[in-house]
Structures are given as structure tokens and as C-alpha cells.
């Protein structure tokens, strides 16, 4: 902990468990999305074996991964056996899709519309489904080789996403789709959309242009790590401008007390001779010079230079409403999140040492470190839909900022995965991994803390929580493990 930082860890004494009512539970299903009113969930069945109908999925991953250098495409594209829409414990099967972009699934506020990027046999398309069974491909196959979804308006009538045009040199582009006007490509300098306001009028997007080589270079820069030797961790220091040669370091873990170099060549893999360049882990303690010399030696050995250490993949962030010019928030940065019902957005910027979170509320910009100075540096921020409550996670703990008050969050709560009611008054968080599976519930206005929503199906596993807009429905679900429980909280906020 840094000198002067406020220690936020404290002992939490919980009162009696709130009498939340268990409405429904499922042991073998994963939840992909929930409607904001808490009534509908998009789910798929758990399976230990690869389903027989995912032909082309591995090829699809290999094709798309170099085009999205900041995503782990291999984890994003998942099999979705027995996809279904669940309501009050009853499931309506949604047939014809074998796998999906895991983060693309969205439901309208009342669950009447579903969108998802999914496919079978090597395809991937943006789909829109109504509760009554109407299934619609959003982009024609003549326009897009592949497409997916990033956001959906509350009424289900506006969709944002990305598509890959046909052509050997094509790169992903962003689109806006409206039920009344159809497809529209995002205007320059917008690249890929990251968020959409609830009313569908404002798009939060990354800006910038890229070509195939630039994307491939960035992909290899963030994925090459030393191969099988990097059992603990590793990363790249530099990559040639043509993306065919790279250099970096790895740490093997276990009893190894050394960082060792690696050199990689396209078509040949990693060379063993680079391991001869090594640095004791102890030698780096308090010595930037030792680390810099180690880094320079590896880069020189690979025949690379300072220019090869710089990324050619530069993006910014902007807000855009159709019919108006984009409002640039940052010339260099990556979108983080957008408040659905407020003019509030966050992004990350690289300051040469670490990524910093920045926020913009209207035309006013602020550093997250200044907003959460007691726990700085801040590494993650989220907010309620109306933007009135902001939750910050940092090096020294977590806190909530609401109505000019700073409310520290005690451990062992998992504050990296919170859920807030639309108004921001109610906050629910799961216990940290290895703790009891009670969900901690805070009324931020009365500053009371209770425990509710114990899900026996998820005992001993990492859990997530999803709260409906009105705080009336709480869903507890496994992150990596199947199973979920749906509770009535006994609270209902006004719309």
C-alpha cells in the first residue's frame, strides 16, 4: 500500500439474512444475457464434450483472432448447445445456431427482442430474434463475410456491431442498424462501436483506421509470450514492421528465479539461443537500469530496433449521434464503458507506464485517480445506468461515489463484478472466490448492508450477480461454471 493511502479493508458484520425469495434455479445452464426487467434470460446448456455441430469454429477463430488484437477471440467464440430463452423457469428453444460470440448476446428491456452474433459450419452473423419467433439476419451475406453485435437499445429497435466486408484486405468495420431504416456503416473516424445509449441515439465507439498488417502486428505483439516455456508468464518487447520477427521475455515459474529472453520468427517459431540472455528476478528489485539493459540486449539479438517496440495500432474514443459530427473524447485510448441513460463514458489511456482510466460527463473530463484518490491508482470503473453512482476499484481497495459521498467497500467482496440498480441506490456484489456464496446487498442511501441470495448450486465457485433495473430481481450465476438462481428481493424502485 502506498504511503498516505487509506486502508479500506475492514471487518464486515452482516445482520440477519434478508428474506429474498428463490423463484427459479437451473443447475446445468449458462446465462448469456438477462433483460433489464429481470424477467427473461438467454441461456445455453453445459456440455463437457465438444458438440458435433461446431464444424468450422476453430477455423473461424483462426481467421478472426488477428483482426481483433485486443480480444481473446478463442474465448469469445463458444459453443451454445440447446440455446433457449427462459422465463419463469420455462424455456423456449432457439434452434439453428451452434456457437456464438459470447459477449454479443443482448436482450431488450422487456425481453421481447434478442440479438446475438452466432452461426454454424463456419459462418458468423448478427441475428435479431423476437419473442414470437421471427428470426432476422441483420446484414446481407453480400455485404458482410462475418458480423456480430455489440449493443442493443432498450426497446430492441437499434443495434450496433461490427462486420467484416468481403475481400482479402478487408478489416472489421462498425455499423448501426435501425428497425425502420436498416443498415448504416459508422462514419469516419469511427471504427468499432463499444456501447449504445438506452434510447439508441448515442453510440460510444473506438476511432482510428487500421490495415490488415497493422492488425496482425498488434495481434502478435499482444499474444506472443515465449511459447511453452512461458508456463508462468511472458510478453513481447518488440516486433518487426512486417510482423515476421519478434522478441520478448518469459518467466517459467516454479523454482525459476530468472527472466529469459526469446526470439520468434514466422514459419520457424521460437529460437532456443535467446534463452542465454537472462536476468535474475532479484536483480530487478529497485533497478530500472538492469531491466532496461536486459530488454535492449534481447531486442538487439533479434535484429530489431526502437521503432519495432512501438505499436502501430492507435485508437481513440468518441461519442456519436446520427446526423451530427462525432465528439472526440480522446485521440488515443480504448473504450471502457458507457452509462446507458446518462452522458457519461469512460476509456483507458496509456501514459507510458500504465493504463489510466478517464471519464467524461458531458464536456467535463476527469481522471479516475482523482475521483478515487483514496484507492489510487484506479484500474476499473463502472456506473449505474443513470450515471449517479460510480464504483471504482483500485490498488488500495474499492469505493462507491454517490451524491458526493465516498462509501468504502469492505473485503472479501468481489467488487470487480458489481451490479447496480438503474438509479444507483442498490448495489449487489458476490463474495470473493472461496468465501460463502451469500450476495452482499447495500442500500447506498441508508448505508445499510445485508446478505441475500444464497445460491446453493454455486457453492465454492466464482459467481456473478445481475440485478434488474428496478432492483426487484436478483440473479446469481456461475462465471465459468454452469448454474444460476433467480430471487425476488422484496424491493421495487419506481421507473
User: Strand share of the residues?
Assistant: 35-45%
Secondary structure category? mainly beta
Could you name the ranges where pLDDT drops below 50 across 5 or more consecutive residues?
Answer: 1-17
User: Which CATH class of the largest domain?
Assistant: Mainly Beta
The number of distinct β-strands equals 39
Q: The CATH topology of the largest domain is what?
A: Methylamine Dehydrogenase, Chain H
The gross shape turns out to be globular
Number of domains in the coordinates?
Answer: 2
Q: Rg from C-alpha positions?
A: 24 Å
Average of per-residue pLDDT values: 87
Q: What is the share of helical residues?
A: under 10%
Quickly give the CATH architecture of the largest domain. Answer: 7 Propeller
Gap between N and C termini, in Å? 42 Å
CATH homologous group name of the largest domain: YVTN repeat-like/Quinoprotein amine dehydrogenase
Tell me about the largest β-sheet: 6 strands, antiparallel
Count of DSSP-assigned helices? 5
Any descriptors?
six-stranded antiparallel sheet, Methylamine Dehydrogenase, Chain H, single chain, 5 helices, about 500 residues, 2 domains, mainly beta, five-stranded antiparallel sheet, disordered N terminus
Explain what you see.
With 495 residues, the protein is mainly beta. The chain folds into 2 domains: 21-210 and 314-488, YVTN repeat-like/Quinoprotein amine dehydrogenase (Methylamine Dehydrogenase, Chain H); 212-309, no CATH class. It is built from 5 helices and 39 strands. The strands form 9 sheets. Strands 4, 7, 8, 9, 10 and 11 form a 6-stranded antiparallel sheet that branches. Strands 18, 19, 20, 21 and 22 form a 5-stranded antiparallel sheet that branches. A hairpin with an 8-residue loop joins strand 34 and strand 35. The longest helix is centred in the middle third of the chain and has 14 residues, at 288-301. The radius of gyration is 24 Å and the shape is globular.
Amino acid at each position: 500500500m502506498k504511503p498516505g493511502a487509506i486502508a479500506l479493508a475492514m471487518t464486515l458484520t452482516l445482520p440477519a439474512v434478508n428474506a429474498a425469495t428463490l423463484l427459479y434455479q437451473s443447475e446445468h445452464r449458462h446465462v448469456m444475457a438477462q433483460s433489464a426487467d429481470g424477467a427473461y434470460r438467454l441461456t445455453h446448456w453445459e456440455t463437457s464434450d465438444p458438440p458435433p455441430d461446431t464444424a468450422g469454429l476453430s477455423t473461424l477463430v483462426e481467421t478472426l483472432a488477428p483482426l481483433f488484437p485486443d480480444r481473446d477471440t478463442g474465448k469469445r467464440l463458444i459453443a451454445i448447445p440447446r440455446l433457449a430463452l427462459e422465463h419463469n423457469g420455462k424455456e423456449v428453444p432457439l434452434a439453428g445456431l451452434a456457437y456464438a460470440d459470447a459477449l454479443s448476446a443482448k436482450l431488450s428491456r422487456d425481453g421481447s427482442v434478442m440479438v446475438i452474433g452466432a452461426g454454424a459450419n463456419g459462418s458468423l452473423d448478427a441475428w435479431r430474434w423476437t419473442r414470437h419467433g421471427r428470426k432476422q439476419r441483420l446484414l446481407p451475406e453480400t455485404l458482410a463475410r462475418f458480423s456480430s453485435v455489440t449493443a442493443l437499445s432498450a426497446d430492441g429497435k437499434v443495434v450496433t456491431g461490427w462486420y467484416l466486408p468481403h475481400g482479402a484486405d478487408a478489416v472489421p468495420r462498425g455499423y448501426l442498424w435501425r428497425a425502420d431504416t436498416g443498415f448504416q456503416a459508422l462514419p469516419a473516424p469511427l471504427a468499432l462501436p463499444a456501447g449504445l445509449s438506452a434510447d439508441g441515439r448515442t453510440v460510444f465507439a473506438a476511432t482510428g483506421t487500421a490495415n490488415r498488417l497493422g492488425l496482425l502486428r498488434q495481434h502478435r505483439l499482444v499474444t506472443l509470450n515465449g511459447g511453452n516455456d512461458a508456463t508462468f508468464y511472458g510478453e513481447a518487447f518488440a516486433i518487426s514492421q512486417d510482423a515476421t520477427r519478434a522478441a520478448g521475455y518469459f518467466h517459467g515459474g516454479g523454482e525459476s528465479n530468472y527472466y529469459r529472453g526469446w526470439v520468434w520468427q514466422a514459419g520457424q517459431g521460437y529460437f532456443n539461443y535467446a534463452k542465454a540472455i537472462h536476468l535474475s528476478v532479484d536483480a530487478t528489485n529497485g533497478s530500472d537500469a538492469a531491466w532496461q539493459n536486459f530488454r535492449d540486449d534481447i531486442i538487439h539479438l533479434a535484429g530489431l530496433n526502437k521503432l519495432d517496440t512501438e505499436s502501430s495500432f492507435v485508437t481513440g474514443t468518441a461519442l456519436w449521434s446520427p446526423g451530427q459530427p462525432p465528439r472526440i473524447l480522446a485521440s488515443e485510448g480504448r473504450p471502457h464503458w458507457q452509462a446507458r441513460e446518462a452522458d457519461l463514458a469512460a476509456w483507458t489511456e496509456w501514459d507510458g507506464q500504465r493504463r489510466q482510466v478517464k471519464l467524461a460527463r458531458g464536456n467535463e473530463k476527469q481522471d479516475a485517480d482523482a475521483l478515487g484518490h483514496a484507492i489510487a491508482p484506479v484500474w476499473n470503473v463502472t456506473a449505474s445506468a443513470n450515471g449517479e453512482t460510480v464504483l471504482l476499484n483500485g490498488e488500495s481497495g474499492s469505493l462507491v461515489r454517490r451524491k458526493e459521498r465516498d462509501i468504502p467497500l469492505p473485503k472479501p467482496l468481489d467488487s470487480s463484478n458489481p451490479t447496480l440498480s438503474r438509479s444507483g441506490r442498490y448495489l449487489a456484489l458476490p463474495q470473493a472466490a472461496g468465501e460463502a456464496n451469500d450476495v452482499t446487498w447495500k442500500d447506498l442511501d441508508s448505508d445499510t448492508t445485508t446478505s441475500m441470495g444464497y445460491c446453493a448450486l454455486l457453492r465454492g465457485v466464482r459467481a456473478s450477480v445481475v440485478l434488474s433495473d428496478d432492483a426487484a430481481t436478483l440473479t446469481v450465476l456461475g462465471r465459468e461454471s454452469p448454474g444460476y438462481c433467480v430471487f425476488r428481493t422484496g424491493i421495487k424502485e419506481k421507473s
